[in-house]
Structure to design on (272 residues):
């Protein structure tokens, strides 16, 4: 329980104060946050931690009062022609919320330019006491583990590490053996979910953003992947279950199943 967090995709638009409360109610010490939410059909109001100072105060208070820490600040996206320095204010807000790290992905097709921007972002984060992780995924410029490793090594900072998402890892062609071969000091965060080995949803991002599976109910070698990963890292539950939400299953019931499943996996890792 002390390693688990809830990722923003899992709560499908739930505002930050409620996300903090959900993590605490589930017995978790961590929650990951984004600064704003996409529109959703579940009645959650739009929010912006950038623009709503009162909401920032309420979120800080909820984190303090419920004993929850922000494990990851999500949403630091590189785009062609955009200077990552434009996101300095967002980094500062995550630091204000006490985040341990921020996460980045790139849609810029130029690998060298992405690496340069990663370095700038990591430096901005480090100045405020935050680490930075890089997430790879099919469909992105950094699409797989080898490319992500090349980027991390090119940036060359000890506070710039890999984020290993179990879905993206396997669907991009890697698995436990490849993870075990990575220097553990280069890995900074884990996102846990399950999916079939062969996609049943044609659009990869549709599946990744909205319809994954509770850990242990799909076909990923999750136990073997967790065995290959460092034992001290926070594990974010990134399990969007839109079909369940559409059927009226609330976030507590959806996420409690994920927490229970993750606990069962981690007990097996510990016992081996």
């Amino acid at each position: 329980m002390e390693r688990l967090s809830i990722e923003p995709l899992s709560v499908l638009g739930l505002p930050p104060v409620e996300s903090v409360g959900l993590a605490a109610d589930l017995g978790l010490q961590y929650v990951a946050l984004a600064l704003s939410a996409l529109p959703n059909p579940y009645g959650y109001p739009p929010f912006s931690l950038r623009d709503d100072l009162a909401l920032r105060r309420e979120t800080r208070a909820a984190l303090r009062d419920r004993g929850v820490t922000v494990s990851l600040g999500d949403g630091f996206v590189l785009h062609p022609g955009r200077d990552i320095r434009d996101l300095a204010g967002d980094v500062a807000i995550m630091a204000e919320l006490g985040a341990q790290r921020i996460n980045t992905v790139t849609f810029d097709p130029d690998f060298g330019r992405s690496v340069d921007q990663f370095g700038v972002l990591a430096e901005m984060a480090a100045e405020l006491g935050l680490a930075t992780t890089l997430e790879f995924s099919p469909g992105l410029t950094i699409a797989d583990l080898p490319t992500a490793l090349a980027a991390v090594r090119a940036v060359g900072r000890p506070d710039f590490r890999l984020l290993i998402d179990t879905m993206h890892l396997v669907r991009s062609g890697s698995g436990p053996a490849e993870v075990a071969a990575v220097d553990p000091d280069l890995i900074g965060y884990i996102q846990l979910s399950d999916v079939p080995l062969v996609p049943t949803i044609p659009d990869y991002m549709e599946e990744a953003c909205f319809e994954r599976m509770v850990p242990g109910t799909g076909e990923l070698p999750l136990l073997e992947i967790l065995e290959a990963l460092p034992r001290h890292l926070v594990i974010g539950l990134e399990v969007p279950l839109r079909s369940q939400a559409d059927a009226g299953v609330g976030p507590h019931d959806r996420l409690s199943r994920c927490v229970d499943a993750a606990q069962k996996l981690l007990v097996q890792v510990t016992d081996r």
The chain has a mean pLDDT of 96. DSSP finds twelve helices and eight strands in the chain. The two ends are 18 Å apart (CA to CA). Residues 71 and 186 are 17 Å apart (CA to CA).
